[in-house]
Amino acid sequence: MSETVKIARTVHDLRKIVAKWRGRGHSISLVPTMGALHAGHIALVKLAKKKAGRAVVSIFVNPTQFAANEDLSRYPRDEPGDLKKLAAADADLVWAPTVEEMYPEGFSTSVRAGSAAKDLEGSFRPQHFDGVATVCAKLFNQVTPDIAIFGEKDFQQLAVLRQMVRDLDMPLKLIGMPTKRDTDGLALSSRNAYLSVADRKIAPALYAAISALAQDVANGADIPTGISTAKRKLTSAGFGKIDYVEVRDAETLEPVPNSSGRPMRVLAAAWLGKTRLIDNVAV
Ligand code: AMP
Question: Which of 31, 33, 78, 165 to mutate to test the pocket of ligand 1 (most atoms within 8 A of CB)?
Answer without folding.
Answer: 33
